[in-house]
Amino acid sequence: MDAPTRPVAVVTGGTRGIGLGVVRDLGRTHHVVVGGRSQSGVDAVVAGLPSAAGFVADLGDCGPGGSLERALERLVPTLPRVDVLVHSAGVLRAGTVAEASTADWLESMTVNVVAVVAVTRALLPALRAAGGTVVAVNSGSGLTASADQGPYCASKFALRALTDSLRDEERAHGVRVTSLHPGRVDTDMQHELVEHEGARYDAAAYLDVDTVVAAVRTAVDAPAGASVDSLSVRPRGGPTTPR
């Protein structure tokens, strides 16, 4: 299928982890716009898909005239409709309130929340035109906060509030909004967190990426008259599974 005949999906953080898994899955059925920070990384993913394009931006630079704004100015005119928008990009900045730096708090809120607002707002006309679906890949940390992860948890709670507001605002326009809350997933970010905790990494105790991708697909493929508003996916459980 040529790009114009396929439904269009935009995926941020599409070059690694959950985002890459989502890109590869949606690539079977959609024309995918792959978002990432590195031109070479985005190009490598795009080259492996049947119908795709790239979207390169630094989500941490989303102020006026910044990298994200410039990239969106180039992208938006090329997308008269967007059927799916998946926000998978994110940063993990852990630390106690007493010790985490102001820079860590600012980066967490900028990448995990403000950039999501900027991308969504820019693509809203195209989402409305398609009656599209927005999926924000949140976290269990967006439902329950924990010690030593203040910047990350706060940003994920804020992301949940954002998606709740967006959902109520966009129902009248036919846009569906899903807040997806995976438990711990076997990704590079999980390695960072476990190293920060000083614990032993046990991939078998975590969700695999394909499980989270299947949850995204559930929201995307929900019948037209239904909306998957919120979805929590946790490791099944066992004696070694973290809560």
From TrEMBL:
Residues 7-188 form the Ketoreductase domain. One of its GO terms (molecular function) is oxidoreductase activity. The keyword Disulfide bond does not apply. The keyword Oxidoreductase applies. InterPro entries: KR_dom, NAD(P)-bd_dom_sf, Sc_DH/Rdtase_CS, SDR_fam. Keywords: Oxidoreductase. GO terms for cellular component: membrane. NCBIfam families: PRK08219.1. Belongs to the short-chain dehydrogenases/reductases (SDR) family. PANTHER family: DEHYDROGENASE/REDUCTASE SDR FAMILY MEMBER 7B, DEHYDROGENASE_REDUCTASE SDR FAMILY MEMBER 7B. This is NADP-dependent 3-hydroxy acid dehydrogenase YdfG. It comes from Terracoccus luteus.
